[in-house]
Amino acid sequence: MELGTWALIQNTPSLLGLVPLIVYIVLAFIIQDSMILPLAISLVVGFIMSGNGAVEFGQAFGTGMGGMMGQVGFLVLMGGGLGGVMNKVGVTTTLCKWIIKGFHIKGKKSAIVILAFCQGILTLVIGSAVTASAIAAPFMIPIAAIFGVHPITLAVVMVFPGFVGMLLSPFSAPNITAMELTGLSFGQYLGWAAGPFLAVMAVMSIVLCFWVEKSMDKKADAEVYTLTEEEKNYDVAVTPERKRATIAFLVVFVACVAWVIKNGNGLSFTFFYMILLTVVVAVLGKVKLVKAIDEFVTSASKLLQIFIICVGSQMMIDTVNAMGGFDALGDIFTSFVTNGSGAGITAIIATLVGAFGISGVASTQMIVIDQLFGAIIKQVGMLPGMWALVLVAGSYLTVVLYPSMTHFSALGLFRSKDMKTLLKVCWIGSGIMLAFCFAYFMIVPIIFG
């Protein structure tokens, strides 16, 4: 997106470019019963400030639908459709029963821990928290509902435990990028950067989930899951059709994950195997394909607003970028770094630049951070492992600091509208992770310098 001739901001980059994002964040706390209205208002503000009109709006919407966030939004729709078919066949209740019995879940806390574990493991093998959640949501939601876990808690489960799984994944794009930029092997990368980061995040995420759940228990108007009688009765007898369909679902799913591990292209391939899983479940569950398609479309349509929000949020970020909002913020941070800065201070500033001043997917952010600070880190003698942690913290945290597809997909997949609480939790979690990183950056040069 480019600035229009009558844009209110002519000299870029400008901190005023952050206004649409700030407007959205403020309104998200004020207007709690709608996710679309705050975004719509921020889009209007952004398009007025950037000098763009109806034609540019249409072009941006088309670009957003074909971009990463549009694809994620459509994946959320497909996840809802698959979940509807799985519910109809009884695969969700069967998986729910097997997980509860297999892990011996007895109460709410153990349910949260097991659900977080499932999210982390699925993300590890798939390489994407959103994709993992789209597959897992249909059987995670009934488990959460049975033990009284609130929707917003399950949304938090997707975010931070999902990141833990991604950091453990040797084939996730950000990890591969970080290893290429630092020259570290996966073992070294895990030992110096990803390992310490994810260990702290794993403990923090469980604590935050417990805290959110406890705070929701005290709210009379907190969101709760409303399940069908079929979903509530997870302990029903597993019929041969249900057992056959469930086993087939697991076998095909594992086979698809193995294909992704070997060949990559996880997000692109996901669109195919979501359809494949739907067909397999329907056929072996003895549901006519016509009825399965109807159920798929009906269930997916309930999440249409998430697709719209994902596209709209991409448009908002594009307007901020066009006005140089993130660039201006990054320039402020980089101005504090000189060739005489020590390794610790340089690492802290570089992390802040990445987390607050650069937008985009994690891999792209890592490359930009490396380009901005590559020469300086060599002069200050920063260790490769320490630089790898800068790349991790400076890229992974951005999507939770600002409203992003991570927030919208988590809320949509797990049936919550509580953006206020999710943002609050993400900011607290990010603050804890940044504090850990800053301590790490100051201690490591003293020990190994």
**Cα-to-Cα separation, first versus last residue:** 45 Å
Apparent shape: globular
Radius of gyration, CA atoms, in whole angstroms = 22 Å
Specify the helix fraction band. Answer: over 70%
Q: Which whole number gives the mean pLDDT?
A: 83
The largest sheet, given as strand count, sense and whether it forms a barrel, is: none
Helix-strand pattern:
HHHHHHHHHHHHHHHHHHHHHH
User: Strand tally, please?
Assistant: 0
- Low-pLDDT regions: none
Total of DSSP H or I helical runs spanning 4+ residues: 22
Helix/strand class: mainly alpha
β-sheet strand percentage? under 5%
Walk me through the structure.
By secondary structure, the protein is mainly alpha-helical. The protein is built from 22 helices and no strands. The longest helix is centred in the middle third of the chain and has 32 residues, at 186-217. The chain is globular and about 70 Å long. The mean pLDDT is 83.
Give a quick summary of the entry.
78% of the residues lie in helices and 0% in strands.
Features:
single chain; 449 residues; mainly alpha; 22 helices; globular
